[in-house]
Amino acid sequence: MTPAQETPRSICVLGSTGSVGQSTLDLVARDRQRFVVDTLTANSNVELLASQAREFGARHAVVADPAQYNALKDALAGTDTEAAAGPKALNEAADRDTDFVMAAIVGAAGLEPTLTAARRGACVALANKECLVSAGTVFLDAVTKAGATLLPVDSEHNAIFQVLETHNRDQIEKIILTASGGPFRTWDMDAMRAATPAQAVAHPNWDMGAKISVDSATMMNKGLEVIEAFYLFGVEISQLDVIVHPQSVIHSMVAYSDGSVLAQLGSPDMRTPIAHTMAWPQRMAAPSPRLNLAEIAQLTFEAPDLERFPALRLALAALQTGGAAPTLLNAANEVGVAAFLAGDIGFLDIAAIVEETMSRGVARGLAAAPATLAEVLGLDREGRSIAAELVRTHR
Ligand code: NDP
Q1: Which atom in ligand 1 lies closest to the alpha carbon of residue 207?
Q2: Enclosing H/E stretch for 178
Q3: Entry pTM
Q4: Looking at ligand 1, which residue's alpha carbon is closest to its atom 9?
Q5: What is the pLDDT of residues 190-216, one digit of tens each?
Q6: Residues 170 and 247 in one domain
Q7: What gap in Å lies between CA 179 and CA 84, rounded to an integer?
């Protein structure tokens, strides 16, 4: 610990039982003098939440599902951890006066608590990309108004954040997001049509939660990330590029007017970008495997295939269209991914449902950009309801 950081940082982990949440706590466990765990939250995994709260001596543990309150309370018996449940308690958790908030809830469910943290001017490490996709301007306005600090956790955005020269903003030519291509990078359409949830979540490089793993398989994840980058870095849409890089060693790049291209490299382990946000503006040790470039030997690149991966095309189109489109896209995708994981629809149906939701949304006059949280949530509900109808017809 450096002299400037003698007081441990108090942290709140929204979504502590998930993949990003667990990696965050893994880093805390390795540097306990540096952090104090104030608040942990989960949706329904009470057993893991309570065991994390015990291990880290958390002051508060919140489960979003109100039906799990008694189970959480029982599981925390004999500890000093206060239990709470329900959406209101989740927002209160984000509103607690902690030094750092890891926003790692999956999907638009994370929007309200993350926005609450932003509105109190917190230092927010943002893993929950759906939050920015769904509520872009509303979220950014809240960040600016409250003077909150937003640190990107997504490995691509964290890489860009590390190599983006803010003093040379007008000299940036391109931001180039790398994509692994996911487990189906080389599959043909027939094979993808028959793909199972187990195959879709088996990412070749990254170990992640189910939703983002399916998003990587459809490449919707890269589309969501382009939208996220648009909001985070304030560049023109035409300055955002995607390149497929199957080794996931280069996490993204920024190209400047003098021809320099700056990249951040590392092994595909989320603990590196998470550690970067937790220690920022300093650095801290992370146990991620070290890069052995001689062993990797080759870094390869290819253009994304928008025919085989229509989800990426749809996300890029939604960004171009703007207005209500990104919110609808995100909502439809969440419904489609959940239905695919539940075995209700096929893999290719996910993008088909997103596309049809977008056109039905236009037909219903859903075009204007949401200007408030209530409007974002209303649009999100509309998108989900259209997509849910479509899931029934695809069954
Ligand atoms: P997981 O599915 O592993 O974890 C999600 C977390 O959110 C869990 O703690 C879960 O609780 C909680 N949660 C789920 N639904 C709700 C809800 N309705 N209300 C409150 N809490 C809820 O997701 P990941 O960790 O993989 O991803 C989290 C976010 O980070 C996503 O937005 C993802 O896109 C982003 N991200 C993830 C990366 C990764 O490597 N995993 C990389 C880059 C970004 P419970 O366990 O009880 O269900």
Answers
A1: 40
A2: strand 172-179
A3: 0.97
A4: 15
A5: 999 999 999 999 988 889 999 999 999
A6: yes
A7: 39
